[in-house]
């Protein structure tokens, strides 16, 4: 175990590091260990074996720490479900109360919109130690780190445990540590100031403070929160999208600065520096005009831009500004999204279909599939009523399709694509049902939380 941990630390710090095949790139692959398949991942196998040896805990901490740092450039995965270092951080936190804060820092560096085991790990750590200063850091990490299961965490024990001014101070220490030590990774682009205020309001309300008293305390704390905010008032985050192909670019910049970051096609990133802020803003304005002429979407996102953090990540890769629209795939060629979908759909049976795309915004768009042979229509964006509709005659189906398109147009959608293609119709039905179940479950959780 000592050799594997040491090799992993050297590998992360080395020039040949590749975060897509972490443990598989080590001289001694942990997956080759005799009983590794009994664990959820190589990471857990290493964690469970190494935690039994206190002399290895220092190496475990060092590995978790450098993985958390490296996650700011993109999460390191052990396998398709386990973020590397997750099980090691959990085992340390379960055995040493002093390691709970390191565990919270690691959780903050994760992409919790794609979490698998992190929620269970947090529950295990909190169950072990209860509500205390160390686990306040876990609650703060869960609350401030964006994630689809954020509201499933049980905050009640923490809120109930804070009964005095000293308790509030201990909680604020955890908040300030999250900001001050910059635990936030590339996924923490929420308005974290409002999140802190929301949590403080719940805590102080539980202590029977009046609304005016709560406002007073929050005002007193606001400087401490704002001084370490990751959100810049002049930060901008813009999404540019080809409505037909769904290919997109995200721009992150500060209107008072000279640097801009462009995230392209899900994985590729570029950063540029202009001579001055005026030149940067002029280039952005010209780009917006051209997007309008081309019919591309130009959308200010709901997330304040973490300008300093993002630009700092790519500080050594700053280049000369280029025409960002040249990054889009030429019309008629296969986009990166097409290639990704082709890989996902490999082996699925396809049938001839009419495919219609309706677009209102990046989060309000849908594809409608019409199977003329089976007299079926699938609306992939419909989750509240029957997404699949079946008809007795072709005329009935076509009339229903026209009405469906008219309904979307009336709601402000735009018809951006109407073409004949081949698609895995039955597979899309199955995926739509699964997505609908997840969405309805999340809505139920949010309603309960509110």
What does this structure look like?
The chain is an alpha+beta fold. It has 4 domains: 1-95, no CATH class; 128-231; 235-327, q64v53_bacfr protein fold (Single Sheet), CATH 2.20.140; 345-449, no CATH class. The chain contains 16 helices and 11 strands. Strands 5-1-2-3-4-6 form a 6-stranded mixed β-sheet, sandwiched between helices. Helix 5 packs parallel to helix 7 and helix 10 (192-206) runs antiparallel to helix 11 (211-227).
Layout: helices, strands, pairs:
Blueprint: H1 2-13, H2 42-50, H3 57-70, H4 86-95, H5 100-108, H6 118-129, H7 133-144, H8 156-161, H9 165-180, H10 192-206, H11 211-227, E1 235-241, E2 248-254, E3 259-264, E4 268-273, H12 277-294, E5 297-300, H13 307-313, E6 318-319, H14 336-344, E7 351-361, E8 364-371, E9 376-379, E10 388-390, H15 394-410, E11 414-423, H16 425-449
Parallel strand pairs: 4-6
Antiparallel strand pairs: 1-2, 1-5, 2-3, 3-4, 7-8, 7-11, 8-9, 9-10
Helix pairs in contact: 1-3, 2-4, 3-4, 3-5, 4-5, 4-6, 5-7, 7-9, 10-11
